[in-house]
Amino acid sequence: MVPTPAHPQPGRSVVFADGVRTPFGKARPDGLHARTRADDLVVACLRELLRRNPALPPERVEEVAIAAATQSGDQGLVLGRSTALLAGLPVTTPGYAIDRWCAGAMTAVTTTAASIAVGALDVALAGGVEHMGHHPLGQGMDPNPRFLTERIVSPDALDMGKTAEALHDRFPQLTKRRADEYAANSQAKFAKAVANGQVGADLVPVATADAEGGWGLATADELARPGTTVEALADLRTPFRPHGRVTAGNASPLTDGATACVVAAEETAGELGLTARMRLLGFAFAGVEPEVMGLGPIPSTEKVLARAGLSVDDIGLFELNEAFAVQVLSFLDHFGIADDDERVNPYGGAIAIGHPLAASGVRLMTQLARQFSEHPEVRYGLTAMCVGLGQGGSVLWENPAWEGAN
């Protein structure tokens, strides 16, 4: 008999059938996607999912949920609905927009999955986009003055870099040296994964435009710094605090990019001939002090593991978003996991790849799905991330290819 979690989630079984993303580009005037609209990045992903999955009739897609942290300009106009129409889905396909800042795409997946689990729909497309070149972090925000006047949050709580510095303050063992070592290792792992063909297979080519160079085609990420050494990171400036510990080298860069995936009821995936690449076992979100938002994935992970009747020792693969190296290190220390544990971010993470805020959750899932196929000895995997203003999100997955199932 195949063992099952002590507390399986109720409702229909939901699977992750496929995931794609655009190449991630620098959020700068000369970046890869500087002259590409954010919604067109999403459209490229939606069209690629339909192209790669011809067994999925467009009319069977019953919902499109797309996230963005800044929902204005080319990231406005109800992204799920507008990009569905632009991608050529039937006019009968509804859609909506999501905002949970960095965990936007993650929430798009969990929200549509919950609808599938209760039988409200069978197939959905979910993802996210952030064009940080068009929409710098915090653009257009007008925080309520009560946050500060009533001391609801610290003045540093709305500055993500300062929240990372606060983690260094709170946990002295999380030194800058450790953060730099982790960052250099992330760069090395990503470079190896690219060379091994483990990254390119999930990228969607995107047309680019340049005033001087004309039209081009983006086929690879442009943010990574292969060959990065700890010594090279040691002397980088600390922009968030004089003599601080957070630098551009041990944090994720400002990024433009989009992601999308197919989420379906397991029986529907079987009916249509879609591949069940991961099975959703549960998810959880949690809140923490906004001043140390990087701790968010700790309680959300504890919550989802408890609900599933599992422990962290049962997890064979982790995809953790590397907003800052210190944030991942705080998670690893809490759960007693070594900094260089091979289960953690085997392809590297956002420090090398980039972190287009609301898009990153599906990037984590897409990479975990590929790793599941490479590791049939692994049954359970986790995708987790911190979220601005003091939250964390964690999604627990089961490997349908797990060799123990036979």
Structural write-up:
By secondary structure, the protein is an alpha+beta fold. Helix content is 31%, strand content 20%. The radius of gyration is 20 Å and the shape is globular. Strands 1, 2, 3, 4, 5, 8, 9, 10, 11 and 12 form a ten-stranded mixed sheet that branches. The protein has a two-stranded antiparallel sheet with strand order 6-7.
The amount of helix comes to 25-40%
Rounded mean pLDDT score = 95
Number of helices: 12
User: How many beta strands in the DSSP annotation?
Assistant: 12
How would you describe the shape? globular
Poorly predicted runs = none
Report the structural category.
alpha+beta
Please compute the radius of gyration using only Cα atoms.
20 Å
In percent, how much strand structure appears in the residues? 15-25%
Summarize the structure.
The chain is α+β, with helices and mostly antiparallel strands and 406 residues long. The protein has helices at 38-52, 79-86, 104-117, 146-149, 160-170, 176-195, 230-234, 266-272, 297-308, 325-335, 350-353, 360-374, and strands at 14-21, 25-26, 64-67, 95-98, 123-131, 206-210, 214-218, 255-265, 278-287, 315-320, 380-387, 391-398.
